[in-house]
Amino acid sequence: MAEHMDPEEFRRAGHAVVDWIADYWATLGQRPVTSQDPPGALAAALPAGPTAHGEPVAALLADLDALVAPRLTHWQHPGFFGYFPANTSGPSVLGDLVSSGLGVQGMLWASAPACTELETVMLDWLAGLLGLPERFRSTGPGGGVIQDSASSATLVATLAALHRASGGRWRQVGVDRRYRAYTSTEGHSSIEKAARIAGLGRDGVRVVAADPQTLAMDPDALRAAIRADVAAGDVPAIVVATIGTTSTTAVDPVPQIGAICAEYGVWLHVDAAYAGAAAVCPELRWSHAGLEYADSYCFDPHKWLLTGFDCDAFWVADSAELVEALTVLPEFLRNAASDSGAVVDYRDWQVPLGRRFRALKLWFVLRWYGVEGLRAHVRSHVALADRFAARVRADDRFVLAAPHPFSLVCFRLAAGDDEASAGLLERVNATGRVFLTHTRVAGRFTLRLAIGSPLTTQAHVDDAWELVASAAG
Amino acid sequence: MAEHMDPEEFRRAGHAVVDWIADYWATLGQRPVTSQDPPGALAAALPAGPTAHGEPVAALLADLDALVAPRLTHWQHPGFFGYFPANTSGPSVLGDLVSSGLGVQGMLWASAPACTELETVMLDWLAGLLGLPERFRSTGPGGGVIQDSASSATLVATLAALHRASGGRWRQVGVDRRYRAYTSTEGHSSIEKAARIAGLGRDGVRVVAADPQTLAMDPDALRAAIRADVAAGDVPAIVVATIGTTSTTAVDPVPQIGAICAEYGVWLHVDAAYAGAAAVCPELRWSHAGLEYADSYCFDPHKWLLTGFDCDAFWVADSAELVEALTVLPEFLRNAASDSGAVVDYRDWQVPLGRRFRALKLWFVLRWYGVEGLRAHVRSHVALADRFAARVRADDRFVLAAPHPFSLVCFRLAAGDDEASAGLLERVNATGRVFLTHTRVAGRFTLRLAIGSPLTTQAHVDDAWELVASAAG
Asked: PANTHER family in the record, alphabetically (chains A, B) (predicted)?
């Protein structure tokens, strides 16, 4: 028999690990946001393999402090303003801890009934919280599922769209026509990646122009692209519209795009990976207009809704289409519940077979915060972004590079070339007190300040502004 | 400002959740392995949405006890013998807890250097533990990465194989030729699913005959299939060989298959999802013969190596091919470290963009158990399977349906039809003391007893045998 960690040893060690995390959070604001070590520093500090006879948890915690934590970019740091946030929260960590402890695998309803049912209910709760169209609720032909990320959501939407566009032939014959996917110049790189994975290639992606001011997809350009493809004998399969683009949080005109998709019978997937969380606030639901046209929609609770990575919430209006596209049923997975047709088997809604019990962290977050707690969280970040943007607007040395409807502010130096703005970013990040990233807007190097950490307060945003303003010289 | 859970509240609630898990583990053996409730029981017990103002963690733990735990199939239960195991352990749960608490996102080296470097080193450690060929170590052109599952590993292997088979055209033009993937009749359903996702369709999968006795792929049949396809103008892209098939843990003859792949220039992916863990024991490494031919290989530490789902370890012999196949680089991800070429960005090794810090749970498991602890774990399960198989063999009412080189035993009633064996399985599972699943071997309904839980002892296996023997009447 191997020696395993018994429940009492787990209890003691578990308390120590919880304490380690509590201490990490309590001291996070005093650490540099990013590591200053060169590549390879951690790898070089680790031995060539594990010991023969094992080590205690205390040794691991010591090495976490000495070796790992100093070589991290701290995403939960109050001065982390990079990319989009991947925020988490105490309730999420605890819900995920329960998931780890239960160690169930929810590929089938039968393999973990509560894992499946809690997920269905949590996705209905989220649909209600965001005010999503009825068609996405599990009470009708639609329903929701947790994917690891919006990238995977885009991929499975693309696959279901190919199934539909082929009249069901695709499952058997594969990609035997020139199927096309559409997004704007501002669409996420995962759309091209999904098309590549699905066998459409770069040639299969039509990049539609965006409005130069709003950076939202131009619906006339979309219509023209679809028309031209149809005339050429290509097969429009899917349009991916974005609510809150990665570069600047632009909002595509989904009502117009949806009408075009309906006219041409093209699958509409709406990617609101970051900005979907905004819809918990009624005053921000304007951003979700037109969603009744969507065949599928996703957003990431793991970005801005306090739920740890990975947790993308993905809905379809007709789950039967998705399941038809993805199902393969080997004998060893057959069971009476599945055969009865009375249950959902989420393995058929995703790429992998296995599934972790991710609904638990959502359940913990939604119940611990409550509706008003989640709204207060989003509102506070939007207000902080407004505050930062007002400082930028009031300083002649800077310009705002795009509208800022949510909690991302894009800005650059008013004078000087791209190198000047890039140098500014480098100086600001070199302080170790904040971390911002960049994009390009209309070709110009642009700084992005994305507010997302629950630890970020007005003082941290004001501090970020002071650092930016003083680094601008 | 929203009210968040502060570090001290997290500390208190975290201790309570750890205690909940310790108590769950301590009482697991006394619970029924599976839920006896009909579909919808949990969903019906939940409210229509979260409350307005939030609830304490204690309310969540109470509902876990009252509503969730009774509706689970308990994968960590000592009487769980279904599917393949998805075992976890105290160290894994703790490592994953640290990952949740840090909340970093490792899509790029720059976005979390330690997340990337620890993963590279852990995959090198695992390669050493399993005695994998040098070509998979990160010291050369090869290297390893964590995927969520073997399904995803098969998918990315298929994509890299298409990139190679197309001479690099596939990225641009997609699937414009009849690419073919090969596996045996015993290959996992994820191989067909990967081919479908990649746009090859069901027609793109060649199902090669297996030896009727060993259920291992027939290399002559593989050669014949490749030859016929080449003659027909089809393009052989990938062969997926299996070490430890899902149905019976058959081991494909990788040395012969590898030689054929080398001859025809076809990508060889070896799927050892379950049985890879066996290679930590030198006496079981015969199962991995021929691996030096493989372009890619994977196994699941989350199946039989005490690491919680999700954790598939995937290696390639040439990581540049994989990265070329999958990379898309938008401006917002550009950074100095990536531009320098000195770092690994694991986003280019997988389907999603985002990544959780999954190497931590591996690090905790490998260090806490040590090499000998892991070997003892595998050996104890192999010995228990031998013991159970000996009972089956000694009882005239039963026959073993296949060899049992690892910890899975396949058996059925010697007399009677499929309904008799299916009825036996139903009666055994109805006791609630054990959970077995089934497969078909040569068309016959066959019971599968897979040993995998760290809690399973000789007494539990003997109990399982008593239940089976008495239910056979």
From this structure: GROUP II PYRIDOXAL-5-PHOSPHATE DECARBOXYLASE (PTHR11999), MIP05841P (PTHR11999:SF70)
